Amino acid sequence: MYRWLLCWRYLRTRYIALASVISVTLGVATLIVVNSVMDGFTTEMQGRMHGILSDVILESHSANGLPNHEAIQQTVRDVVGDDLEGMTTVVHVPAMVSIEHRGESITRQINLIGIDSQTYATVSDFSKYLLHPENQEHISFDLKEQGYAPGRKYFPEAGWIHRRRFAAARKKLAQLDMEYHLEKLKNEKLRNAIDSVAISTFDPTTQVPANQNTDVDGGSAPSNAIELSPLPAPPAEYASSASETIEGANETSVPMMGPRFDAVASRPEDAPRIFDAETEQHDGIVLGISIGTTRYRDEFGEVTDYYYVQPGDDVRVTFPSAGNNPTAINKNFTVVDFYESKMSEYDATFAFVPLERLQAARGMEGAICSIQLRLREGADLNHVRDSLRAQFPLDMALQVNTWRDLQGALLAAVQMETTILNILLFLIIAVAGFGILATFFMIVVEKTKDIGVLKSLGASGAGVASIFLGYGVLLGAFGAGVGAVAGLIFVANINTIADWLETITGQAVFDPTVYYFETIPTIVHPLMVVWVIIGAVAIAVMASVLPSIRAARMHPVEALRYE
Amino acid sequence: MNSAYRTRLDPETKISVSTMVVPRRRADAQEPRTPELRIASPYVLEGRDLFKAYRKNKHEVPVLKGCDFRAVSGKVTAILGHSGSGKSTLLHLLGTLDVPDAGEIYFDGERIDAMPRRRRDKFRNSKLGMIFQFYHLLPEISAFQNVLMPMMIKEGFWGYMKNRTAIKSRARDLLCRVGLEHRLHHKPREMSGGEMQRAAIARALVAEPELLLADEPTGNLDRETGKQILGLLAELKRERGLTIVMVTHDESIAAACDSVIHLVDGRIKD
User: Fewest CB atoms within 10 A around its CB: which of A177, A251, A448, A552?
Assistant: First the structure.
């Protein structure tokens, strides 16, 4: 009883000891914040990866893909059985996308993925990451009228509205351009004509009519005409050739105006009829959102996305054909939506097109590259993977992996990062432990006489030691408790605090240009909090063991004599 | 006695002069006590042939050099001596706060100096009350809690919680008895020297010991207050049949006691 009484008294009268546990408090708070944020990140990231990658992937090594995938699918159905929830076939191929932007061609390296819009949604959360609400419901490669990403300011008119407006504008521009060139040609020819007439005035053979002509034109002196035209005389039949050129301006002007003007329309052999961008679209493509954007800070420090391309614009994709001698294939696609998984790696490289179009364009004749499976909730992925591996030996050029296998390195790296951070932060608390040790030694020395008195009253060494041990427990618990509360409050308001720090320091704490999260994701595991508190209290107790032993060993007579 | 000390030492000094230690405490087997003596002894507290030396740096400083002590039950025994004569050391040995290098101490016929540490703690707690020149109250807690302290130590947590009403009323009664009814919940630093010594007396008596050891109880008090404290001790002795052993350097105080032992240079002067 006396132990607790004295322990409590010491706690209330020795504020220096409280100061020594501030570092414990800070350590605990930091640990909780760091673990919550790391857990938040990991969970979010895993969720997204999993959503994108489906559960189990059967991938072919062959560049030409798997021609006999129907049989393989049947085998998979037999092997996996009831655990199978969804299955889809996919073609993926490295590719390059060219985006026309202000007359420049921007190229990006992408991973072109042909998906089956009917079954792809059954294996992954692909549709969840699309911007158009209707596409989120049901994937479609048809351009929507409007309504992309409601709630975002970037493209209110994306879709057919945008496409029509731009197509009309381009048509108009092309027309203006054409008229301008025609005018220029006309003027040039006219001037040439005038010049040749002026020169011809010096021709003694045609002198009289030419003179008449110049008089009518502006009454200019014949001496002027000599300076103007050192050129030799043009062919006599200039008038007829000029008229021909004007009629043929349609052909000759096109190359001058660059690739912005519909290349399909200009190549009669590709499109027998003229492609009308105002009412027609190419095959749809869903671009990863980072392919067509850059993220930057505007002059007000706001994070803004700049879009080179919007739904409704056309892009050109270059990819290899199937077969043993691949050649590059160019194909136009119309951007019908963006894909935003917020995994920057995927957002910057993935582009989705309809499976059958890609197969046809590559000449794959129905072959596919990989089969993706979604399993029932709670199914043992590794077990399914192993039984599938047994079914498809390696010589079939078919690799079976779970999504964890494919992202193993990344997941392990994040895990290691978390572990190292935990170790470092516990070292901070251990350092705090030495502070407690020093403070406790001081308190034990200060309390020497009281220890002597207690012993003279019959308190045992263990009893005296337990006063200081209990003191350590209480201090540690107090420090850890305050730290836990502070940490949890911090985690709960972490985004507000980040914003606030940003306004004060002007430095972005959590930069959305770096991470593809709008806010900091956090998850608090109660067990983690409990373990952190236990660890901190244990360190405080360990730090108070030595001073306690010293107190217990103190000789009562010497302690009473202590001044 | 001096020669006895030397003869004891001689075999040791042959080996090493620097460690001029007095012989270690003899084991019971070597010198068996006679049972008759234990029963026949009229003394509640008895010290026989006590040796004690303290080590200061490398030098042994002998304090007690073969000192005998007897206290008669129900009497006040004064130990009179100058500073450094070893009287406080003798009191500490009697109170089992320290163990003698040689010699035996008996309480009620039971040898107490060779008891294990735990039993000595228990003995101090229940059979012994101690008061000091500088009161030695715990500064963080009130007079009342100071008085409760021995009972808390004695009963442990559950025992104390079970009997706390009885214990608290006993402590309150004792504090009233020593005249501190108005200082129950004052901290030691808010009390005068006399009041602190009264609180210390109440603390020493709360566990109802048979023996009270007082180390210069009036040494830090003025004459008048000291007289009051001594009067209080005399009254308590009479009421409770206490045996009191009091260390003092004041001859007038010693003269008022039932018996006086003069301690000179670590030995009893007859």
Answer: A251
